[in-house]
Design a protein that fits this description.
single chain, alpha/beta, seven-stranded parallel beta sheet, six-stranded mixed beta sheet
């Protein structure tokens, strides 16, 4: 009898403890992982801010248990998006930045990339940085103040404000050369506005010679007729920030937003109907692909085991849409925590 009671107690306890404990489960979903295999799942388990597993609904619900289990009622879940090109107004304040963050979160955008940030603009962002919801990746103009700032700045990978390097545009050659030298010494990024620095290109490439680290320098505003320069940039490990040049063999990035229309997609038809992106490639262009620009492809950009649980539950399915201007997030999560809800 004692043995039977012991067996029954053990059985009941094991039944109560069925499944591995996680923090959050979302199910009844269409999860578009955007990995290399274009994996699609029905449920996701999350613990300590990271993805534990994505798979069929029955498998996840039987294998895991959580205090919070959400039925998303068939909605699509995608990785959170990047806006890879922002130019701020010359005069802005904390209210302007907060409004911008809300507009981005409404569309599932959690990371933004700012080019050509002036020293005065940088000071405003630094004051706002402790209140940020988004992660702001910034490249500075190569002014004397910005160069001095980067020499002394202590970079923190956990900060919501990530100063990544310099954008070279209409600048004096002296400033450009100095910015290149600082970028090499501090392991920073260089972005080239090609049409504006074309005459300095040889000098810039010489300044950056023999730099072996994974620097992710990039170029935009290209001249599609100058194939020689494009090939030279590619040989020097520059990434092309637009996808209009299909003859370039390196991974290509696509701008993620069109601020004038508040759309999360930019130029889907890319100059000709033959090059039109399907919706999976469009999604990758603002998540998976562009995560390389901020050195974060190991953490974000796709929904995979071990990566941060940064994702959006879309209000309406993107796979059935042709009008990409009306995509909104029902809920946006960062590291498994809901930071935005439409409700």
């Amino acid at each position: 009898m004692k043995i039977f009671i012991l067996f029954l107690t053990t059985f009941l306890l094991s039944s109560c403890m069925k499944g591995k404990k996680v923090d959050l489960i979302l199910h009844n979903a269409n999860i578009i992982c955007l990995d290399d295999l274009n994996t699609v799942g029905e449920a996701i388990a999350i613990k300590d801010g990271k993805i534990v597993e994505i798979g069929p609904e029955r498998q996840i619900l039987n294998k895991y248990r959580a205090e919070e289990i959400n039925d998303v009622k068939g909605k699509e879940i995608v990785p959170t998006f990047y806006n890879s090109y922002i130019e701020l107004d010359s005069l802005f304040d904390e209210y302007y930045l907060k409004e911008m963050e809300i507009k981005h979160l409404e569309q599932g955008i959690t990371e933004v990339f700012i080019h050509n940030l002036t020293y005065n603009q940088l000071q405003v962002l630094l004051k706002f940085s402790t209140k940020m919801e988004l992660v702001w990746h910034v490249n500075l103009t190569p002014s004397s103040n910005n160069i001095a700032f980067t020499r002394n700045y202590k970079f923190k990978k956990t900060s919501k404000l990530q100063v990544q390097g310099f954008t070279l545009s209409k600048n004096e050659l002296k400033d450009i050369s100095e910015a290149c030298a600082v970028a090499k010494s501090k392991d920073l990024q260089i972005g080239l506005n090609f049409k504006e620095v074309k005459s300095y290109l040889s000098t810039i490439l010489i300044s950056l010679t023999d730099y072996k680290k994974d620097h992710r320098w990039y170029v935009f505003n290209l001249d599609d007729n100058d194939i020689t320069s494009l090939k030279k940039l590619e040989e020097n490990n520059f990434f092309i920030l637009l996808n209009e040049y299909n003859h370039i063999s390196r991974p290509l990035f696509v701008f993620g937003t069109n601020q004038s229309s508040n759309s999360i997609f930019f130029n889907l038809s890319i100059y000709s109907k033959n090059n039109r992106l399907d919706y999976i490639k469009s999604l990758k262009s603002i998540s998976n692909w562009v995560s390389y620009l901020s050195f974060s492809e190991g953490k974000f950009g796709t929904l995979q085991k071990g990566k941060y649980a940064n994702f959006s539950v879309l209000e309406t399915p993107i796979s059935t849409k042709t009008d990409y201007n009306t995509i909104y997030s029902n809920a946006t999560y960062i590291k498994g925590k809901k930071i935005y809800s439409m409700e």
